[in-house]
Amino acid sequence: MKTEKRSTELPPFVKSWKQFYWLLAGWLVFLILCFYLFTRYFE
Q1: Which whole-number Å values give the CA distances from 37 to 30, 40, 41, 42, in the listed order?
Q2: Verdict on whether the full-model pTM lies above 0.90
Q3: Higher pLDDT pick, 35 / 10
Q4: Do the beta carbons of residue 7 and residue 17 sit within 8 Å?
Q5: Which residues contact residue 31 at a Cβ distance below 8 angstroms, ignoring those fewer than 6 apart?
Q6: Distance of alpha carbon 7 from alpha carbon 9, whole angstroms
Q7: Distances in Å between the alpha carbon of 40 and those of 28, 29, 30, 33, 37?
Q8: Nearest 10 degrees: CA dihedral of 3, 11, 25, 16?
C-alpha cells in the first residue's frame, strides 16, 4: 500500500524520484543561465 501511494505522489511525467530531482536540477541550471545572460545583456 505504501509503495503505491508514494509512486502516485510523483508528477505524471517522471517515473522515479531520482529522475525528478535531475529534472529539477537541470531546470534550475537553465534558469540561472537565463538570468545570467539577461543580466549581461542589460548591463
Answers
A1: 11, 5, 6, 9
A2: no
A3: 35
A4: no
A5: none
A6: 5
A7: 18, 16, 15, 11, 5
A8: 30
Among residues of the chain, what percentage have pLDDT more than 70? 81
The residue to which cell 531546470 is assigned: 27
Residue type, 37: L
Q: What is the 3-state secondary structure (H, E, C) of the chain?
A: CHHHHHHHCCCCCCCCHHHHHHHHHHHHHHHHHHHHHHHHHCC
